[in-house]
Design a protein that fits this description.
GO molecular function, one term: NAD+ binding
Keywords: Amino-acid biosynthesis, Aromatic amino acid biosynthesis, NAD, Oxidoreductase, Tyrosine biosynthesis
Order of helices and strands: EHEHEEHEHEEHEHHHHHHEHEEHE
Strand content: 15-25%
Catalytic activity: prephenate + NAD(+) = 3-(4-hydroxyphenyl)pyruvate + CO2 + NADH
Pfam families: PDH_C, PDH_N
CATH class of the largest domain: Alpha Beta
Radius of gyration: 24 Å
CATH topology of the largest domain: Rossmann fold
Helix content: 40-55%
EC number: 1.3.1.12
CATH superfamily of the largest domain: NAD(P)-binding Rossmann-like Domain
Number of domains: 3
């Protein structure tokens, strides 16, 4: 068990995916975790998972982590600040400016509050989806403000480092603009694209490959939660969507007559701009390193993927990323393996020698 920076106890309010994952991560370091939730069932499940214990009247938490839906976050934070006057309180909601403003307007003691946001999650929610390592290597934003001292805010830094996340400091306004671009607008674009499938012929949907699945994967997210998130961060999301609409209009205009002078150049410029933009996204461990992809064909039989991964380990090549594709009606799957460019040739040769079929 690794030594914790926090002293504890830590009270976690909200035993869903994020709250229970925070609790499991802290329990793995020996921290006394107190669990609370409006749902007794969620608390009972989280306790059964080993995420912590039920609250007691004499609890005096060092830190409180509020992990509840965005539309009730401010009110829950205010209640926790009032109930535990010695504790530092943070929340993990995906918007920050509105919560801080609402707390300040209600005269809550914001000298003991600082908002934060781990950029981590899963497509499934609830305590059963929680993982102690959910935040490992993921960015976790601390949205500092002038009313809280650095000494008090250090407990939040300790929480983030204990859970293996990467601390990122931003103002609440910078955070909300940032997540609008890298999270909230992509959710809208993905959902609207997936909505095109409602009236699509079955024959067309049967052609679906990994590209369309990549674009629409997050469209399966919870609509109720996203209505809250988008409503709380509406202005930055709207600004970006309006710029995106301008980009689409230029593209649509060029496609209106693709033989017109300059039309193909306009299309190429937009696509090239996408290439340049995606290259700016940080890769594994926050680097801009580009990887080489090897596509391996896997028979649709139990144990084949596990054997492939084990043999990559035996060869001594580090797996940087993995993506699977299994198209309907095919008896094979495709494993797209990302490795460093200097390892690609050796891995290809070694896998082929072991009988694996390399596509392309």
């Amino acid at each position: 068990m690794s030594e914790s920076r926090l002293i504890g106890p830590v009270r976690v309010v909200g035993a869903g995916l994020l709250g229970t994952s925070v609790a499991l991560g802290l329990r793995s370091r020996g921290i006394d975790v107190i669990l609370a939730d409006a749902s007794p069932t969620h608390v009972a499940i989280a306790i059964d998972l080993g995420a912590g214990r039920a609250a007691r009247p004499d609890d005096r938490p060092q830190l409180i982590v509020v992990a509840v839906p965005p539309d009730v976050t401010a009110s829950v934070v205010a209640a926790e600040l009032a109930a535990f006057p010695e504790a530092i309180v943070t929340d993990v909601a995906s918007v920050k400016t509105g919560i801080l403003a609402e707390l300040a307007a209600s005269d809550a003691d914001v000298s003991r509050y600082i908002g934060s946001h781990p950029l981590a999650g899963r497509e499934r929610g609830g305590p059963l989806a929680a993982r102690a390592d959910l935040f490992a290597g993921r960015p976790w934003v601390v949205a500092a403000h002038d009313a809280i001292s650095y000494q008090r805010a250090s407990a939040i830094d300790d929480l983030i480092l204990d859970l293996g996340a990467t601390l990122v400091e931003m103002s609440p306004e910078e955070h909300d603009r940032g997540v609008a671009l890298i999270s909230h607008v992509p959710q809208v674009v993905s959902s609207i694209m997936a909505r095109r499938f409602l009236d699509a012929p079955n024959a067309a949907l049967g052609l679906a490959g990994q590209g369309v699945r990549d674009v629409t994967r997050i469209a399966a997210s919870d609509p109720d939660l996203w209505v809250q998130i988008l409503g709380a961060n509406a202005a930055p999301v709207r600004d970006i969507l309006m710029d995106y609409r301008d980009d689409l209009d230029r593209f649509i205009e060029a496609l209106g007559d693709p033989t017109a002078p300059g039309a193909r150049r306009k299309v190429a410029e937009e696509l090239t701009g996408g290439n340049t933009g995606v290259e700016r996204l940080p890769g594994k461990h926050g680097t801009d390193k580009r990887f080489t992809t090897i596509i391996v064909m896997i028979d649709d039989r139990p144990g084949q993927l596990a054997r492939l991964l084990a043999e990559i380990g035996e060869i001594g090549v580090n797996l940087e990323d993995l993506r699977l594709e299994h198209s309907p009606g095919r008896q094979v799957g495709l494993a797209e393996i990302a490795v460093l460019p200097e390892a690609a040739d050796r891995l290809t040769d070694e896998l082929a020698a072991r009988g694996w079929r390399i596509a392309g």
